[in-house]
Amino acid sequence: NTLPAALRAELKPEQGGFVFQPVREQAIKASEGTVDFGEYFLYFSFFLIVSALLLVGLLVRLNIDRRAGEMGLLLATGWDHGRVRWLLLGEGAILAALGSMVGLAGAMVYGRLMLKLLAANWPGGENLNFLTLHADEPASFAIGGAASLIVSLLTLSWATRVLARLSPRSLLVGETSQTVGLADTAPGWSRWLIPAGILGALALVVLARLLPSQDAQAGSFFGSGALLLMACLAGVWNGLKWSNRASSPQPS
């Protein structure tokens, strides 16, 4: 009875030319593809998200400019700066919550249109009908809505920090900015962002040619674009400072 078990223990299938491969696991891994569309969606949406947050900050500052008299009156009647700021944050939180819900619905439309665009313009004319929008997980919607709400509230808090430096008298007369001009401010660390951004963008471009992974190359491409954008914005900022310091009149 022990002879079959002893033979199986001694016999090696490889010695007889038999090769066993995990065919099912290999097929599943091959069907997954080599392109991580989740990362591509994140890359494509990154600049759009940052632009939206900048727009939120600008709208908050515009709201402060238009309601300067109202906030100055509240401060003059006994409200402190923190309470006025919390009032603005509360209003912004309600709008941010409503915007998050609208954004979730817009994300569905955006995702479907992006998949159709990829399927219609994919190189080589390959059939990408297997690309479908997976929107059946409530956790993903909860994470997306909470993340958008949090970053919106952080942007609101950053945009309303100017209230702590304004007096009731300044707000009552409609002044929502400091009296120090742009030309009177110190150069600061922003001037170092120009060479750092340009050199960093060039370094990523060179590095991308040496990376074997396509995902890493795509990340280097978007990273170099972000660094170049940062350098250009810093250049414009410092250029405006320099033009205001010039002795001869400069065009506005």
Features of this protein?
252 residues; mainly alpha; 9 helices; elongated
Please give the count of helices: 9
**Oligomer description:** single chain
Alpha-beta content class: mainly alpha
Radius of gyration, whole Å: 29 Å
Helical content band: 55-70%
Number of strands: 0
Unreliable residue stretches: none
Separation of the first and last Cα atoms:
100 Å
The overall pLDDT, averaged over residues, is: 80
> What does the main sheet amount to?
none
What fraction strand? under 5%
Assign an overall shape. Answer: elongated
Could you state the order of secondary-structure elements as H and E? Answer: HHHHHHHHH
Structure description:
The chain has nine helices and no strands. By secondary structure, the chain is mainly α. α3 runs parallel beside α9 (214-245), α5 packs across α6 (138-159) and α8 (193-208) packs antiparallel against α9.
Summarize it:
The chain has nine helices and no strands.
SSE topology:
Elements: H1 3-10, H2 23-31, H3 37-66, H4 68-76, H5 81-121, H6 138-159, H7 168-172, H8 193-208, H9 214-245
Helix pairs in contact: 3-6, 3-9, 5-6, 8-9
